[in-house]
Amino acid sequence: MGETFNALAISIPTGGFAILAYLVVGLVIGIESMGIPLPGETTLIAAALLASQGDLRLVLVIGAAATGAIIGDSIGYFIGRKAGRGLFERLGRRSRHFSEVRIVKAEKYFHKYGVWTVFFGRFVALLRIFAGPMAGMLRMPYPQFLAANAAGGIAWSTTIGIVAFNIGDNADKIFGQLSVWALVAVAVGLVAAYAIYRLRRRTSDVVPAEPAVAESADA
């Protein structure tokens, strides 16, 4: 891992050209946030390590990362909002899991809980990539999305930047493991929620039998 960061230190200009390093951080994280898989978190960690060596300024690294995250997520949101409904209609013709009823329920969920999903999704592998486009596809109101997006982007950039600055080369491995475990926790939670939903649905579909009417003894 140390060799990787040494290679990054050589390949990213520093000193008088440090501005290019900050632009690289913002660009990689921005593109990742649009929905394109790129190593945004690793780039942020590498830049924070360069800052710990005095080649970059940590506050500017965090600022570049947060800016890239906010702008990239917003672009991803509008891409998802533009293409989402047509994509859902095509998927709906192929699978009942994307039926209009279920899409409407998903939209209601994002209207109610989307702020927390977007905020905490910034700290979770894969959700960090797809939260913006997903929020747009499910018609989450943009003011709510922007507030959660900005708060999550700033919190994530600050947390990762400061911790990586202080703990050194092990940061990438540590955050990678935490992100994967967070994704596992989210997946388990979704499976449990779906199982509970199906159980309640099945229970509600059971029609109680009408009590038998005793026949009259005179019949």
Name the descriptors.
disordered N terminus, mainly alpha, 78% helix
Helix-and-strand structural type: mainly alpha
How much is the average pLDDT?
A: 74
Q: State Rg.
A: 24 Å
Report low-confidence residues grouped into runs of 5 or more.
1-14, 213-217
What does this structure look like?
The protein is an all-alpha fold and 219 residues long. Helix content is 78%, strand content 0%. It is built from eight helices and no strands. It has helices at 2-11, 18-33, 40-52, 58-94, 100-121, 127-137, 142-167, 171-205. The model is unreliable at 1-14 and 213-217 (pLDDT under 50).
Give the topology, please.
Elements (H helix, E strand, L loop, with lengths): L1 H10 L6 H16 L6 H13 L5 H37 L5 H22 L5 H11 L4 H26 L3 H35 L14
Put the structure in a nutshell.
This protein is an all-alpha fold and 219 residues long.
